[in-house]
Amino acid sequence: MKFSLNTTNPLKQHKACLIVGVFEEGKLSPTAQMIDTASHKALSKVIKRGAITGKIGQVLPVYHLGDSSFEHILVVGCGKKGSLSPMAFRKIIIGAIKSLGTSDATLAICCLAELEVSKKSLSWKAQQIIEATSDALYRFDLFKTQKEPATALKELSIHVSEAKQLKACELALKQGQAIAESVSFTKNLANLPSNICTPTFLATQAKDLAKKYRSVSVKVLEESEMKKLGMGALLGVSQGSAEPPKLICLEYKGSSKKQAPIALVGKGVTFDTGGNSLKSPDSMVGMKYDMCGAATVIGTIKAAAELKLPIHIVGVIPTVENMPGGTAYKPEDILTSMSGQTIEVISTDAEGRLILSDALTYCERYKPDVVIDIATLTGAVVIALGFHATGLISNDETLAKHLLEAGQESNDRAWQLPLWDEYQEQIKSPFADMANTGGRSAGTITAACFLSRFTKKFKWAHLDVAGTAAMMMGTSERMATGRPVPLLVQYLIDRASK
Ligand code: BES
Ligand code: MN
Ligand code: ZN
Q: Can you list the alpha helix ranges (DSSP code H) found in 345-481?
């Protein structure tokens, strides 16, 4: 897909598909109004016939409008006239592009950047159009022997009315493309099944990234090195699997200045059976996505490298497979983590926090400015926030605020939950320094409480993406989303500009 910007009068673009808006009660967007006038009201006549009422999500393709020379217009519903919410804007674009994807249009001119979106600039809208378009056209058919025919659409050009606005939009174009590519990359990696996407495979992906970008380097710690470091928590989880564990350490240097790095830590459980605390068959479907945190870290670093952001990032990815069996760890086993703290295993299905604990301790050696972990950590976050918001928990209010803002800005939102001391009580163990589960109540918070015991030496935030990194787990429509790559890239862009 090619993305571009143009200032050409849409009335002179008869051949391309023009995407324009209609509000409820038949009110037209400015470009739709121009087309209506130029076509002697043919457009409003079609709309008045009731084929489209203007509700968000509706689309009406119009071919050969009246006796005008417009060959193809796509009218999309934009809701009540007035300012749109950022999410509604995204929905409108996705609806339009999904419908276009099934048509024969090769070039589309999107005239929707003129819609008003509350508190958002033109360049924000241009960037969202690119990211939403890429999301709408995404497919994963690597393993289908019968591929669906490719979409005819080759180029989407965003119409901006004034030439003086082009400069700001060019940066949006660049950022939108880099984010869209990284999101697709992350989705592809996440959608791979665990018989292909093993810990070793993830390590190869990280090495490939380092080959592609000079600014990126990688080091992969093997089981023997992890043993030497005393990573008993990570190795405990891995011991039941035939796949060797890896600790992938990526580094991105976008500036020659010496800067304390931003550390990104991604949970990379390539399949989570629950281990000896075995999951039920229904809840096991979707567990190939338990490495979405890892895929997000690789994807985010890719975007930073693509955008040449002048910052320093390290990516630490603990990756294992969580299997049951005769060699696997068991409930009531006691593990000694790299930090020296001991952990009583209550559930072998609470494995994410175990591998993260050693990865977080390992981060200390980088003397990081901040550490952000990304993990499909708890089913409880889906109960609390559903599929719309990532759960955010932090030991630093400023860091939390920055991440929440980046989520708002990127339309990839997070919502904060508390990390109060009272919750720490729930992970007491009679036999070890802590237990790896805290009971049914506040499961997302007690998981973070566990992690907080390994993050005392730095500013840290935890993103629980169990509800947002993949949609409809357990159904035939399950699919990775690439979240929270947009949030994190926005955070990095903000950091780079400070
Ligand atoms: N990978 C799961 C969390 C998960 C659940 C992700 C649903 C995506 C969708 C995690 O390892 C897990 O099993 N968590 C347990 C923790 C419990 C045993 C304390 C859970 O949420 O049930
Ligand atoms: Mn689990
Ligand atoms: Zn898991």
A: 352-363, 380-385, 397-410, 443-452
Residue 22 near residue 47 (C-beta atoms within 8 A): yes
Distances (CA, A) of 29 to 81, 124, 460: 9, 19, 45
Mutate to test the pocket of ligand 1, among 378, 383, 426, 472 (most ligand atoms within 8 A of CB): 378
Q: Where are the domains of the chain?
A: 2-158, 181-497
**Within the chain, how many helices (H) and strands (E) appear?**
15, 20
- Architecture of domain 2-158 in this structure: 3-Layer(aba) Sandwich (3.40)
Q: Of 248, 231, 270, whose CA–CA distance to 317 is shortest?
A: 248
CATH code: domain 181-497 is: 3.40.630.10
| Residues 28-59: tens digit of each pLDDT | 999 999 999 999 999 999 999 878 999 999 99
* Atom 5 of ligand 1, nearest CA residue: 379
Active-site residue numbers? 279, 353
Which residues, given as ranges, of the chain have pLDDT below 70? none
User: Do 330 and 277 contact (CB within 8 A), yes or no?
Assistant: no
> 437-459 pLDDT, tens per residue?
999 999 999 999 999 999 999 99
